[in-house]
Amino acid sequence: LAKTTQPISMDSYEGQEVNITCSHNNIATNDYITWYQQFPSQGPRFIIQGYKTKVTNEVASLFIPADRKSSTLSLPRVSLSDTAVYYCLVGAYFYGNNRLAFGKGNQVVVIP
Amino acid sequence: DGGITQSPKYLFRKEGQNVTLSCEQNLNHDAMYWYRQDPGQGLRLIYYSQIVNDFQKGDIAEGYSVSREKKESFPLTVTSAQKNPTAFYLCASSGTAFYYGYTFGSGTRLTVV
After folding, report:
1. pLDDT score recorded for residue A98
2. Does residue A95 register a pLDDT over 80?
3. Are B105 and B74 in contact (CB under 8 A)?
4. Nearest residue in B to A32, CA atom
């Protein structure tokens, strides 16, 4: 399993853009990069997934450089409700081996 | 709507008792997983199952048991052998390709009293 490294926590003011980085130096060719969001006492929620370059959806953008050894989740104009833990995961499916390793994630606190 | 249902939401167990946490999905996903989360920590994998009647130990399987008799169901039993069972338990499922992502249930909070 590719290991990921994220900052433990970060604060941001409401209305700002938040960029959360993740390092995954030993990412494999078949691996995808996926980000999840978790609120207290809830299960993680899928945010976005990508393989290379840039992916954008209605919630966030994901930037992946050419070497794929890191990725950046960008949350535009955050609100107080974006306060959550954000997990970066790297992995791929092979028959009999579809398991994800969650680190401690990045606690993002949005300040009024 | 498709999703994963975990029950109960809160569970209290006396020391020495076994308890079973329910997880049901109607997403037609082949793979299902159980994770444990302690306060301020990430998720740790307990057991996972890729197919009916087959399951594999995760990183912290000691003191837990599972069954997968139906595709839709993956119950977790916390046995008396689990020395520190108080935690938040999450069930998840996924399709047969990683890029489908995981869908999580809303969790069960187990407390030993």
Report:
1. 57
2. no
3. no
4. B99
